[in-house]
Amino acid sequence: MSHGRGENRVREQWRFAVLGPVGAWREGSEVDLGPPQQRALLAVLLLAEGAPVQGHELVDALWGGEPPASAVGSIRTYVHRLRKLLAPSVIRSAGNGYQVPVVQEELDLVVFRDLLARADRARRAGDAEATALRLREALALWRGTALADIRGEYAQAQRERLGKLRLSALEHLLTATLDLGRHEEAATELAWLVAEHPLDERFRELLMLALYRCGRQSAALATYREVRTLLAEELGIDPGPGLQRMHERILRADAGLLAAPRPGAAERIPARTAPPAPPLPVPAQLPGALPVFVGRRDQLALADEVLPQAGEPPVTVTISGMAGVGKTTFAVHWARQVTARFPDGQLHVNLRGFDPFGLPVRPEHALRTVLRSLGVAQHSLPHDVDTLSALYRTLLADRRVLILLDDARDAQQVRPLLPSAPGCLAIVTSRNLLSGLIAVEGAHPLRLDVLSVDEAHAFLARRLGQERVAAEPAAVREIIERCARLPLALAVASARAAARCAFPLATLAAELRDSQGSLDAFDDAEPDGAADVRAVLSSSYHDLTPAAARLFRLLSLHPGPDTSLPAAASLIGLPPADTRQLLGELLRAHLVDEPVAGRYSSHDLLRAYGSELARTTEPPAEHRATLRRALDHYLHSAREAVALHSPERSLIPLAPAAAGVRAEEFAGASAKAVAWFAAEQSVLRAAVEQAAAHGFDVHAWQLAWALDIHLNRSGLWRDAEAVHLTALDAARRLGDPIARAHAHSGLAKALTTLGRVDEARAHIERSVELFTASGDLRACAESHHVLCWVAECQGDLESALGAAQRSLAIRRAVHDPEGPGSDDERGSRATAGALNALGWIHGLLGQHEEALDHCRQALALHEERGLGYGVWHIWNSIGSAHHHLGQYDEAVASFRKALAGYRQTGCLPIAEAGTLRRLGDTYVSMGRAGAARAEWTAALAILERLGHADAETLRADLRRLPAPGP
Q: Does the pTM of the predicted model rise above 0.85?
């Protein structure tokens, strides 16, 4: 640290770091900085780079907009403790704040900026070699994610700011690398960066140039097609001018792109006019405008009174009332009126709190949906609800957004989704009062009742026309009375009247008068607002064609909240073209909605009515046949998706689908299969439970089998445990040993990843016994493969070796790649996987030459058969063997190949974390502690996001690393 002028004592050597976990070193020894908030305070002062930080700024940085009353006192305590840990002169008082005066070499961030400046001078001087050297020195200062051990919105904002600086440095480094003619090296690094930042056009453009200079023109053009599709699907935009220009130059084989590099420099990439990185998307998700909204002026005025102004605390408004009273309609209308106040976006989530045939949307699932809307990639999403909520609040910091949370079940479902940034608005609709939000979060309650008589009259006039309504005042009064001024009932009745424009309104009034009964869903209605909605729905229903009426009834039996066209076609057993026409009829009658293209749903009251009709109209045999067709649709679709999604897995045989079932078509595209699993995940979970509840036990265990790989790759291990427990119960009821064996195997995988390895061992050993007794050799080999992994996780390497050897022996007996079955690609993948597993266990036993031998056999089989998918697991094993043989450069190269594959798939986060960890081990052995810290920190971030049990062990390893060098 610098001391006062004129001070002659020897200068004490200090180093501080923020480009990674926050750290301080005195004379080369790391100082324990104490608890997280204390470390955070030092980080805030260091980020000021020597400038004073005022007290209120420290309070905001540490606690955000809701500091405790003791905040100022806590800051004084933290400063006092830090001065004792470091030295009194390290933190100086400055007015009502503090500062840490540092010189250039003492703070890694200052050194980083200086190296960037020196690199920029070299770049402007045309010295590409010096540019690259300085940028590599700058990037080597990073020890992982900036401020990795500091939580809170301020830290997250600083992480994003520093992360942008790092990405900019990487861009300039790779540009210099291309200038120096090292195109293959640049292409390799750029492929990783594109995988990590798929929407960043800077790296796409550089990758296209690198591939072109490597002689891979088709790959360069494919990169452009990929990003054009991605930008259109994710952001609804075209590639920027720089990318388009590069594409055009490659198409015409522009010789300027291959210009030979000059000494120390090469042809410069044309200046880009596109922004350096795409901004966060601005969502506009509110449902469409409602042209028939009427009345509610008093409620709108009350709502407008509580709107937050810029800089004011966020506001939550709860809109409650009985089912069908128009809560969603009111919320959408008001939200659309005030959108101009929220320029950073409007979000919409249907929480399905009172869906009678499905579970409410869990907060973590809703958060994942919202975060994907805000541009966060699926594979980057954290696992637990608290971390998801923190990321959500961080993304909304300094943004004014409106979020409409529709059909909430209770306050607990809503709380993680409430924004905390100033100026934001949350609108929550629910049948419940949500008194918890009112009492704790200070939400403003707004209760809706049925329409007034004048409003109901205006509603019908808007729907049917003023002249028609004025011509039959008595009939209109009776329709309003029979509909009890309930907006839903009025909407259905007016839709039917509009479709029968030649009929007088008195006919509709008479039909309503003659109808009887009431929907059970209105039991909670207040006496003076009771509504005979069933009568209204009945009159609309009976106006349908017989086929459309049947589809309306059968849709209520569907296991999920919405359905696709093939699923609806399977329900009714008709071709998709005919089913689409029937859905169009239901749409016109307002008996179903199409909130998203190709996905059909209906209001919960309509579904309840359809369910009643199905129970009273459909014979029991047809009721069961419909459930069978729905389950067959999802089972056969899921098996086809598994075949594409998991090409190494043995497939189970299925009974033929019932007549009329239409499975999804994936056109041989694994990406479509992956997307289908993600879209139908909640429906498939519900289908497992529905199958078990209605005696379709074969469907229950087979659907669980089909879901297994998707749930495990997505890190949804508790969901995997739940479906396999249901499957095991179903298998026991069936008395089917094969079904039990599959359920035990699925449970073993889920429990192992959840850290319950002893339970997993019992399940997988039972699976092996059952498969062995059954004579199903392929399944037996798979169960031995899983046993190998479980035993490895237990530390029982001898058992793991035996299981791996048996798995390989069975694979070779079933499928000889050199023999008559050599065209069986799935069998070849399985054999290669067994060889790799055996090599891996040999490595763990210290038999590294044997490990390399088996893994190279696996690699040769992959390359000989052109298998592609899954080869990264083999490279990971080869890297581990090279590491233990002291062949560190070969190990690093192998691990890098494995990581490139894992990142390309985007659905193997746990495998990626394992390889990052082993790569860090290799860097430790090479004496490169800084590089090891970077890889381990990246691995830890994945493990924490997944909630994995190994995270704590890795944290301990990171703490044991030697302090970074100067």
A: no
What are residue 903's phi and psi, to 5 degrees? -70, -30
What sign has the CA pseudo-torsion 631, 637, 640, 645? negative
Measured between alpha carbons, how far is residue 904 from residues 192, 193, 370, 881, 901 in Å?
8, 11, 24, 23, 5
Nearest CA-CA partner of 916 in 274, 303, 192: 192
Of 191, 60, 518, 82, which Cα lies nearest the Cα of 322?
Answer: 518
- How far CA 184 is from CA of 204, 292, 764, in Å, comes to 15, 62, 45
Per DSSP bridges, beta strands 425-430 and 599-601 are unpaired
Q: 678 pLDDT band (50/70/90 cuts)?
A: confident
Which residues have a Cβ under 8 Å from the Cβ of 218 and sit 6 or more positions away?
A: none
Residue of 431, 419, 497 whose CA lies nearest to 465: 497
Compute and round to an integer the Cα radius of gyration of the chain: 32
Amino acid 4: pLDDT: 38
Residue 462: which residues within 8 A CB-CB, separation 6 or more?
A: 291, 292, 294
E strand or H helix at 430: strand 425-430
Residue written as token pair 């006039």: 461
Across-strand partners of 531?
none
Backbone φ and ψ for 861, nearest 5 degrees, come out as -65, -40
Task: Decide if pLDDT at 226 tops 60.
Answer: yes
Residue 608 CB neighbour total at 10 angstroms? 22
Percent helix / strand / coil, the chain, rounded to 5? 60, 5, 30
Q: Which residues contact 321 (CB under 8 A, 6 or more apart)?
A: 327, 431, 447, 448, 449
Task: Tell me the average pLDDT across 162-190.
Answer: 86
Given strand 315-320, what is the order of strands in its sheet?
346-350, 402-406, 425-430, 315-320, 444-447
First to last CA, the chain: 14
Residue 437 tokens, joined: 């939000």
Q: For residue range 684-694, what is the model confidence (pLDDT) as tens digits?
A: 999 999 999 99
Tell me the backbone φ, ψ of residue 29, rounded to 5 degrees.
-105, 130
Closest alpha carbon to 781 in 740, 703, 838: 838
8 A C-beta contact, residue 323 and residue 311: no
Q: What is the full DSSP assignment across 120-186?
A: HHHHHTT-HHHHHHHHHHHHHT--SSTTTT--SHHHHHHHHHHHHHHHHHHHHHHHHHHHTT-HHHH
- Report which secondary-structure segment, H or E, holds 645: helix 620-645
| The pair of three-digit structure tokens given for residue 37, joined into one six-digit string | 């908030």
Q: Is the dihedral of CA 425, 431, 435, 437 positive or negative?
A: negative
Q: How many CA atoms lie within 13 A of 14 on its CB side?
A: 24
- Residue 940 near residue 916, CB atoms below 8 Å: no
Q: What is the mean pLDDT of residues 719-745?
A: 95
Does residue 925 contact residue 882 with C-beta atoms inside 8 Å? no
Report the share of the chain in percent with pLDDT over 90.
27
How far apart, in whole angstroms, are the C-alpha atoms of residue 117 and residue 131?
A: 10
Tell me how many helices (H) and strands (E) the chain has.
Answer: 41, 14
Instruction: Please enumerate in sequence order all residues whose Cβ is within 8 A of that of 728, keeping only pairs 6 or more positions apart, or say none.
Output: 701, 740, 743, 744, 747
The two tokens of residue 125 are 């001087």
DSSP result, 316-381:
EEEEE-STTSSHHHHHHHHHHHTGGG-TT-EEEEE--TT-TTSPPPPHHHHHHHHHHHTT--GGG-
Which of 179, 404, 167 is closest to 283 using CA atoms?
Answer: 404
Which helix (DSSP H) or strand (DSSP E) does residue 747 occupy? Answer: helix 737-753
Tell me, rounded to whole angstroms, the distance of Cα 736 from its chain centroid.
36
Contact 472, 510 (CB under 8 A): no
Kindly tell me if the per-residue pLDDT of 466 is higher than 70.
yes
